[in-house]
Amino acid sequence: MTNDYKFEFRPYQRRFLRSLTTNHGKWDIREGIILRLTDESGKVGWGEIAPISWFGSETLEQALDFCRQLPEEITDETIFSIPDELPACQFGFESAWEWGSGGDNFITPNSSLLTPHSSLLLYSALLAAGEAALNQWERLWQQGYRTFKWKIGVYAIADELEIFESLIHTLPAFTKLRLDANGGLSYEEANLWLRTCDNLKANGELPLEIEFIEQPLPVEQFQGMLELSTSYETAIALDESVATLGQLAACHQQGWRGIFVIKPGIVGSPSRLRTFCHQHQIDTVFSSVFETAIARLAALQLAAELSRNNRAIGFGIDHFFEQEETWFQTLWNDL
Predict the structure, then answer these.
(1) Contact 264, 300 (CB under 8 A)
(2) Do residues 242 and 251 touch, judged by C-beta distance below 8 A?
(3) Which of 3, 51, 169, 335 supports an S-S bond with 57, CB 3.0-4.6 Å?
(4) Which of 215, 209, 216 has its CA nearest to residue 124?
(5) What sign does the dihedral 154-156-160-161 (CA atoms) show?
(6) Average pLDDT for residues 269-291, to the nearest whole number?
């Protein structure tokens, strides 16, 4: 039996408190789309499309075009036949559909969702690139974070290694540190970072753990990362290389058995992601795309269900936005 849903959508913009700097450049405003599906009994499901085109998803414009061309009434078939070129749309529509049919698991979005703290999941907090990280970690540590991710591959490697040296000696014992290059290192630089981390581990004096280096090389240098992953003790995680389900499957097929960083907001269909993870039992880290509470709730449900190896999830990003308690109601009512 096919269900019909009334479909509505609203674009949104949220400004970062300060620009987010990665190897891909500066990012000032997070833009996305909130979806609302209402079934025939009046039950409402919320979804969010939060694309990051430079990461491998569709553009915001493509997502808006897709939403604009849909009729006001859509069916299950519409939702489950969204093409793979629109992975953020697949995620947004399918999570709204699950939300609407998910019974008591999902709650109407409100301010309590803006700072979720699930006892099931450990969060990793994102540190700014460069020296800013040295002044940032302490406040986050006091808030309870014990895993940090620091952006590398942004400044000159000699400078970053120097800051890294300071960072590892100021972070408390038993901290876990992840280094995220966003594909910004050369093969030589990646070797240097991995060797540096291995040496720290080998001399045994470091009371913190370098958990992994994330996406050291660009996506097209998959073989290089495969080689590096067998040459060093320090683990490598793929991120940009596995942005969508198709890429995830391709890397697995080509022999990647390291860590997969999954960004549910842009990976594609949640139901197909579940099938893949259950089938292959991959080592995953779930991570944010700087979504609002709507997509985050759906992403956290997936993370709780599919995370293995007790790895902290990368949703410690609240400190990058102003906390607007009423943003959601305002968005929906004002337009």
Answers:
(1) no
(2) yes
(3) 51
(4) 209
(5) positive
(6) 96
CA nearest neighbour of 303 among 280, 286, 279, 278: 286
Distance (Å, whole) CA 297 – CA 300: 5
Whether the CB-CB separation of 327 and 14 falls below 8 Å is answered with yes
Three-state SS for 12?
strand
pLDDT of 328 above 90? no
Give the three-class secondary structure for 334: helix
pTM of the model: 0.90
* CB of 237 closer than 8 Å to CB of 258: yes
Give, in order, the Cα–Cα distances in Å from 242 to each of 202, 210, 266, 298: 30, 22, 10, 19
For residues 11-28, average pLDDT: 87
Q: Which residues contact 75 (CB under 8 A, 6 or more apart)?
A: 2, 3, 4, 5
pLDDT (tens digit per residue) in 197-256: 999 999 887 889 999 999 999 999 999 999 999 999 999 999 999 999 999 999 999 999
Residues 6+ apart with CB under 8 A from 275: none
Distance separating alpha carbons of residues 149 and 124, to the nearest angstrom: 7
Chain centroid, CA 28 distance in Å: 17
First and final CA of the chain: distance in angstroms? 34
Catalytic one among 6, 26, 43, 151? Answer: 151
Q: Express each pLDDT in 86-131 by its tens digit.
A: 999 999 999 999 997 764 444 444 433 334 444 435 899 999 999 9
Q: Write the burial class of residue 308 (CB in 10 Å: 0-12 exposed, 13-18 middle, 19+ buried).
A: exposed
149 near 121, Cβ under 8 Å? no
Is 201 annotated in the active site? no
Q: Does 334 score more than 80 pLDDT? A: no
